[in-house]
Amino acid sequence: MPEVSVIVPVYNAEAALQRCIDSILNQEYKDLELILVNDGSRDSSGSICDEAARKDSRVRVIHKTNSGVSDTRNMGIDEAEGTFIQFLDADDWITSDSTKLLVRTAKEKNADLVIGDFYRVVGDNLATKGSIETDEVLSLQEYAEYLKASPADYYYGVIWNKLYRRDIMNKYHVRMQKDVSFCEDFIFNLEYLLHCERIAALQVPVYYYVKTDGSLVSASMNPKKIIDMKTSVYQYYDKFFRNVLDEEKYRNERVKIASFMVSAATDEFVIPLAPGTKKVGEEKTAVVFNQEDTIIAQTYYLKKLFEKYLNTVAVKNDLEPADVRLFGYVKAQKEVHSLREIMDVTGLSEAAIIGSAQRLMMRGYISLSIHKNGIRMSVKKADSLEHDLDLVKEDLMESCFSGFSEEEKKQATGYLSRIGANVKERLK
């Protein structure tokens, strides 16, 4: 059985559906099933789903009469077989390492829920959206404090930037409320959270959210209807805090909790040229693909893959890619005494090394002293960053040997060692 079930409700999504499907099936993490639930689409969405199932055995398609997104997601949950469940909307897509990072975090931290950052996409522009900065495991009470500070934030309310455990959903029969047409994701999360003990935040964007026309909360909607819907949702929100907080704290926090009534669901805007806004594609490692199969091309691709994984570590730890590259080299060498040596191996300029060293020193990750014979740079205690770099090595090996048998991996590793020894000998 697959470890992850990815559920996508589909309704008249032919324009973007293939991009969504491709982003799931092309994940670095392969042990998954994709459940496409076609909610009575009247365009070619159903055919796109069937074609995906024909090409990939991991895809299952369910065709049903139209009954709304909540009922459609519930059907997907009922059909799921994975230990974990991940949701996508058909208009959106995920990063190539999304499922891998979410599952890894859930396992490492024994988390009942993992919540990740996401990209907010408007036209050709995107910006990163996150909220929880700590990588420490949160209790339900600690998570509730973050939620209370910003109750209408999409980061907390939606289901597509999270990874859930199927056993919790089934044990407590946590499902979408079919009779609610506003903030159904938020209500689902509140119900699920009541059964969580350990919650982990991942400070890496794992999802591309594209806001489409037709939002329920719009300027054209009857204000009374919006208030009525929010009142209904507030009842679930209030129930959540009654269960999480003790009676005295609940009384003291009632005004803050009630602020949900006047908050508007927000995912923030992406304004071209605003700080932090990028063109779609600029967030990825730039790669020029050359079909020529040469040692130069293979070395280039390996370097780019290494760069991609280092960039993820940088984002997660709020560092620059150059910082991670420098830290990784110093970590490997234990102690470095030559600036020129660092420049030669890392490819960083002297100015980049100095800037990175200053940032790493401020974070307490390295120590640096300058003396008449040169420098002395060494790693200080940085468990989380060191752990992430160790995972980069594992990811590189997994990517290089994907599809290899254990015997083939053993042979290839031996060949690589011999090749490395030969190359070093020629360089002497």
The CATH superfamily label of the largest domain reads Spore Coat Polysaccharide Biosynthesis Protein SpsA, Chain A
* Spatial separation of the terminal alpha carbons: 52 Å
Residues in helix, %: 40-55%
Instruction: Fill in the CATH topology of the largest domain.
Output: Spore Coat Polysaccharide Biosynthesis Protein SpsA, Chain A
Reading the helices and strands in chain order gives: EHEHEHEEHEEHHEHHEHHEHHEHHEEHH
User: Given the helix and strand composition, which structural class is it?
Assistant: alpha/beta
Q: Which blocks of ≥5 consecutive residues have pLDDT under 50? A: 214-220
Mean pLDDT across the residues is 88
Which CATH architecture of the largest domain would you pick?
A: Alpha-Beta Complex
The number of helical elements comes to 16
The beta-strand count equals: 13
Query: Radius of gyration, rounded?
Result: 24 Å
Main sheet: strands, sense, barrel = 10 strands, mixed
Mass-distribution shape = globular
Q: How many separate domains make up the residues? A: 2
Look at the structure and give the CATH class of the largest domain.
Alpha Beta
Strand content: 15-25%
Task: List its salient traits.
single chain; about 425 residues; Spore Coat Polysaccharide Biosynthesis Protein SpsA, Chain A; Arc Repressor Mutant, subunit A; 2 domains; 13 strands; about 45% helix
